[in-house]
Design brief:
This is UDP-MurNAc hydroxylase. By secondary structure, the chain is α+β, with helices and mostly antiparallel strands. The protein is 29% helix and 24% strand. The chain binds FE2/S2 (inorganic) cluster.
Length: 514
């Protein structure tokens, strides 16, 4: 979406190229828009790092590097680092939930969500006000409520997700009837959540955005909602309008690529490149045409995945075992082994399966030993080779969202399994561990002893476990994850403003407030 005002333009989440192992494509196809022109903007806003929002290739090739990036206040610097690597140099770090006035009277506010379950450790929404017109691009963020946005006055345009963006339940190895029943429940829950948000904000106009994707690879074609499957979790914008009407909604506006909606305090005038209803009436034909046009792109991507030189077991051990060692909450939360069945082919073209177990209680990665596991994932070996070859730290934002796997689990959904596999870096793991630590111990945060000092366990910066990363020399503590220093006697952070640490001498009874 591009927001144009007299005080400047903001391009939001421009996604064009396929994401997640060439599984997801934007639908309707937006690759034929005039991106040379659309990319000439004053501001860029990327809500989070999921690859259907952060399209590195498109950002690099088409978005003006003179644009100022409106950056959510995320706990790690990954988004800024990635954007800098693409050539962006101007950043406005928006303080969380605070209105920032830009030149010309354009006002923005960004709410960053930072729990390990929000996006790839972070998702966000953008609020914009210009000339008395207010807009909330909630996107696919899931705040507890929308009160922070309502505070600044009536919102005129509310843009939000309504469809599915996950692999559940399609990839699960379940009888078809169960899969349909779970899918139906999920589809209903998605709509209920959307109605709740819409009702919270009571905007004049509601724009269903951020999905669903379409699936153009033959292997995934069945995930498109064109087969009359009531358990399909990817209903499109026309279904949204029909369902919204059933609950009394009359202010929904569907945008196609190239549609323009002019929002004022009085109303909204929208023009479309083609009639919307007619477009969706021919959805299957559009998808089939797209599938033919994108075949070569999918084939080229597939050809890049295999890396037979990668020793998958050895590499998984090397990358994952140190993280298992450090993990307290996530490992405990998973509570059992997780098995990967990697399907390849031998020289004669026959199928091979290598079974590898990530043993959370045992803290090791090893061959499967005929045991009961918590989760089992079956996928192409080439995909995991590719993840290891590229050093991917987030297997949710790559393998799992690709839906190119099947899964079975014993017992309930376990958020810790996916939280762990999105944290395959020291920085992310420490952040997630610290987050759970703080939330499990909100009242009675844990202290540890290092040398002569008793100090809070989690670094005030990004929550590294100081029993592993903290070094005390004299009265000074250094956290080795990013090198921040703290004066223990006063609790003052010597590297950055704020971030006071709670510490006291082991032989003293008085404590410093952290
Ligand atoms: S977590 Fe960054 S310095 Fe401690």
């Amino acid at each position: 979406m591009r927001i144009d005002t007299a005080a400047g333009s903001i391009l939001c989440d421009p996604w064009v190229n396929p994401a997640y192992f060439a599984s997801w494509f934007p639908f309707p196809d937006n690759s034929q828009l005039d991106w040379e022109t659309l990319g000439q903007v004053d501001y860029l806003y990327v809500s989070h790092l999921h690859r259907d929002h952060f399209d590195a290739k498109h950002l690099r090739d088409f978005v003006s590097k003179d644009a100022t990036v409106l950056l959510p206040e995320f706990p790690t610097s990954e988004m800024e680092d990635e954007l800098r690597a693409l050539g962006f140099t101007k950043f406005l770090k928006a303080p969380n939930e605070q209105v920032v006035e830009l030149p010309g009277g354009l006002k923005i506010m960004i709410q960053a969500l930072t729990s390990p379950t929000d996006g790839p450790i972070g998702d966000s929404s953008l609020w914009v006000e210009y000339d008395g017109v207010r807009l909330l691009n909630q996107n696919d963020a899931r705040p507890a409520d929308l009160s922070v946005f309502a505070e600044f006055g009536h919102v005129h345009a509310h843009l939000l997700q309504f469809s599915g963006a996950i692999w559940y339940p399609m990839v699960y190895e379940l009888p078809q009837a169960a899969k349909t029943a779970f899918g139906k429940q999920k589809r209903e829950r998605q709509f209920d959540r959307t109605w709740r948000y819409i009702d919270d904000l009571k905007a004049d106009h509601v724009f269903p955005i951020a999905g669903p994707p379409c699936f153009l690879d033959d292997a995934l074609w069945q995930f498109n909602d064109i087969h009359g499957d009531e358990g399909n979790i990817f209903p499109d914008q026309s279904v949204f309008l029909a369902e919204y009407a059933k609950v009394g909604g009359t202010n929904g506006i569907v945008l196609l690529p190239g549609s323009v909606a002019e929002v004022t305090t009085e109303g909204c005038a929208t023009t479309h490149p083609v009639p919307v209803a007619e477009f969706f009436a021919n959805k299957t034909a559009h998808l089939e045409e797209m599938r033919e046009r994108k075949r070569a792109i999918i084939a080229a991507e597939k050809a890049s995945w295999r890396h037979p030189e990668v020793d998958v077991l050895g590499e998984m051990k090397r990358r994952i075992e140190p993280l298992l060692d450090e993990s307290i909450y996530l490992a405990k939360g998973v509570g059992g082994p997780v098995r990967f069945d990697l399907v390849g082919t031998d020289d004669a073209g026959g199928e091979t399966v290598e079974s590898i177990v990530v043993d959370f209680p045992g803290k090791e990665v090893r061959p499967y030993a005929d045991e009961k596991v918590r989760y089992r994932f079956r996928t192409e070996r080439a995909l995991v080779e590719h993840l290891l070859h590229t050093g991917e730290v987030d297997w949710v934002n790559s393998l799992f969202l690709s839906c190119r796997f099947s899964a079975a689990r014993i017992g309930q959904y376990n958020e810790f399994v996916y939280a762990f596999f999105k944290c395959l870096s020291e920085e992310r793991l420490q952040y997630a561990e610290g987050w759970y630590d703080e939330h499990e111990r909100a009242v009675d945060a844990e202290d540890i002893t290092i040398g002569d000092w008793v100090v809070q366990r989690r670094c005030p910066h990004l929550k590294a476990d100081l029993s592993r990363f903290g070094i005390v020399e004299g009265d000074q503590l250094t956290c080795q994850l990013h090198g921040w220093k703290f004066d223990m006697a006063s609790g003052r952070c010597l590297t950055s403003v704020g971030h006071k640490i709670r510490a006291h001498r082991a032989d003293a009874t008085a404590t410093q407030a952290g």
